[in-house]
């Protein structure tokens, strides 16, 4: 999706960002068991992938081919029909002819049924079921509450590949900024917006914290949507503000960023550690006592693809461990509560790394940065500290997700994780495109091509 972003001058983002494919596998999956198969790779090579799966379960190679074909169908048809589409009404969303190409190949049960249940149609081994459903974490869901259509997440990684911006993701941010500035955009940073001003159903501009008023007849807010309604618009749009507060939210995460004195050789670029308590492990921990001995978590080790990340022989890794958000009874009443769950999370992660044969990193940690649910809420204005914004359950997908425009305030538009189509870099970029097209259509029809 990054490569589809073009500056108005027609230059490619490749001029600003170097993307490198993560190879030979998209991910390495570690299973929380001390016997049998302890890890598997999500390989791009279909033949090698089938052979690897056959060693775990007879017939799994053929099942994988069926799964991949169906997931790719959901990706191709679903992206055009649901993700990139701008829904202006329910009937636009429920347009039967638009749905027929997808339903022709996939049953509604496979698309809308519980993801874990649909995966049992392909694999009997719980490890393989888990291997192709952990991606639900990307949208803050679990295999036990996500619809089966999210198999498209695995499909896009295995068919399009996983790519990494050399130099880190800040290069993407800087590249987008440079492309925008080259065609005349002015970018102001370190200027906190106090409110979005509007009157008589028309946006007027924004007022900064220092009192500066910036007039504009179009405002695009990309902060988390509940924050926009409750803090930047205040009580003037009460109905939507109340609705958002009572909506379902994704998981929060405890994140550790560690600089290590030694390299962890068994890690791939992307790594997922899955508990041996497959269903129980997806219950979001609310305090130190509810974090499992071997929880689900993700480890990012980018130096496998980008040698500039850290000095030779050392390592720089990020760990993300899903937990409850602050609206789910998360036990945070004081700094000591936060410290307790962070310490428990750190201990469980390090213990799991040891038991998985990665190594005891206790004495390797040179520096540490920690993010917990209060950090996400206080530093990034994310409602309840939900790291992925609004959840992606069936009643908060596509048309049922907040629109990219506020109908009662002309000129006010939204982009980001909690509006359509959803969270994650590809979806947010697709959403930015939807928002841009809506702005052109409603304000500059002679430029929109409509």
Summarize the structure.
This protein is of the alpha+beta class.
Question: If you average the pLDDT, what whole number results?
Answer: 86
- Compute the number of structural domains: 3
Spatial order of strands in the largest sheet = 3-2-10-11-12-9-13
Helix content: 25-40%
Q: Tally the helices.
A: 15
Rough shape?
Answer: globular
Helix/strand order, N-terminal first: EEEHHHHHHHHEHEEEEHHEEEEHEHEHH
Counting DSSP E segments of at least 2 residues, the number of strands comes to 14
Separation, N- and C-terminal Cα atoms? 24 Å
The portion of residues forming beta strands comes to 15-25%
**Low-confidence runs:** none
Largest sheet: 7 strands, mixed
* Rg on CA atoms, Å: 23 Å
Classification by helices and strands:
alpha+beta
Written description of the protein model:
- The chain is α+β, with helices and mostly antiparallel strands.
- The protein folds into three domains: 23-161, no CATH class; 188-247 and 388-448, FAD/NAD(P)-binding domain; 252-385, no CATH class.
- The chain has helices at residues 46-54, 60-83, 90-93, 96-103, 108-112, 115-119, 126-131, 152-160, 170-182, 225-232, 238-245, 335-355, 373-380, 425-443, 445-448, and strands spanning 19-21, 25-31, 39-43, 163-165, 193-199, 202-208, 213-215, 219-221, 252-260, 270-274, 297-300, 315-323, 365-371, 412-414.
- The strands form four sheets. A seven-stranded mixed β-sheet has the order 3-2-10-11-12-9-13. Strands 5-6-7 form a three-stranded antiparallel β-sheet, covered by helices on one side. Strands 1-4 form a two-stranded antiparallel ribbon.
- Strand 2 (25-31) and strand 3 (39-43) form a beta hairpin.
- Helix 1 packs across helix 2, helix 2 (60-83) packs antiparallel against helix 4 (96-103) and helix 2 packs across helix 8 (152-160).
- Keywords: Carotenoid biosynthesis, Oxidoreductase.
- It comes from Marchantia polymorpha (Common liverwort).
- GO terms for molecular function: oxidoreductase activity.
């Amino acid at each position: 999706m990054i490569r589809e972003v073009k500056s108005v001058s027609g230059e490619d983002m490749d001029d600003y960002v170097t993307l490198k494919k993560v190879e030979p596998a998209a991910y390495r999956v570690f299973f929380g068991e001390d016997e049998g198969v302890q890890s598997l790779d999500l390989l791009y090579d279909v033949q090698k992938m089938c052979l690897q799966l056959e060693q775990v379960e007879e017939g799994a190679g053929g099942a994988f081919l069926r799964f991949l074909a169906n997931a790719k169908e959901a990706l191709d048809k679903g992206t055009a029909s649901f993700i990139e589409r701008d829904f202006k009404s329910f009937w636009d969303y429920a347009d039967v002819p638009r749905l027929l190409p997808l339903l022709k190949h996939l049953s509604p049960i496979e698309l809308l049924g519980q993801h874990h249940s649909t995966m049992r149609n392909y694999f009997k081994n719980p490890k393989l079921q888990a291997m192709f459903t952990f991606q639900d974490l990307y949208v803050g869901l679990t295999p036990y509450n996500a619809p089966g259509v999210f198999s498209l997440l695995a499909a896009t990684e295995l068919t399009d590949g996983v790519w990494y911006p050399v130099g880190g993701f800040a290069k993407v941010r800087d590249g987008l900024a440079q492309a925008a500035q080259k065609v005349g955009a002015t970018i102001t940073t370190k200027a906190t917006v106090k409110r979005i001003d509007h009157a008589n159903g028309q946006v007027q501009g924004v007022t900064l914290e220092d009192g500066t008023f910036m007039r504009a007849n179009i405002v695009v807010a990309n902060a988390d949507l509940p924050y926009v309604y409750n803090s930047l618009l205040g009580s003037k749009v009460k109905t939507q503000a109340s609705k958002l507060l009572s909506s379902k939210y994704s998981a929060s995460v405890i994140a550790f960023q560690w600089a290590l004195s030694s390299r962890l050789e068994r890690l791939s670029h992307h790594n997922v550690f899955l508990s041996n308590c497959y269903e129980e492990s997806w219950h979001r921990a609310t305090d130190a006592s509810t974090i499992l001995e071997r929880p689900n978590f993700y480890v990012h080790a980018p130096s496998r693809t980008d040698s500039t990340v850290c000095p030779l022989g050392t390592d720089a890794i990020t760990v993300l461990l899903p937990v409850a958000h602050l609206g789910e009874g998360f036990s945070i009443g004081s700094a000591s509560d936060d410290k307790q769950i962070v310490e428990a999370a750190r201990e469980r992660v390090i213990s799991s790394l040891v038991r998985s044969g990665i190594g005891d990193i206790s004495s390797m940690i040179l520096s540490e940065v920690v993010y917990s649910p209060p950090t996400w809420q206080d530093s990034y204005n994310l409602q309840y500290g939900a790291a992925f914004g609004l959840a992606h359950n069936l009643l908060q997908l596509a048309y049922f997700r907040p629109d990219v425009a506020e109908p009662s305030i002309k000129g006010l538009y939204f982009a980001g994780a909690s509006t359509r189509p959803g969270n994650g870099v590809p979806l947010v970029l697709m959403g930015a495109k939807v928002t841009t097209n809506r702005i052109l259509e409603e304000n500059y029809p002679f430029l929109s091509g409509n």
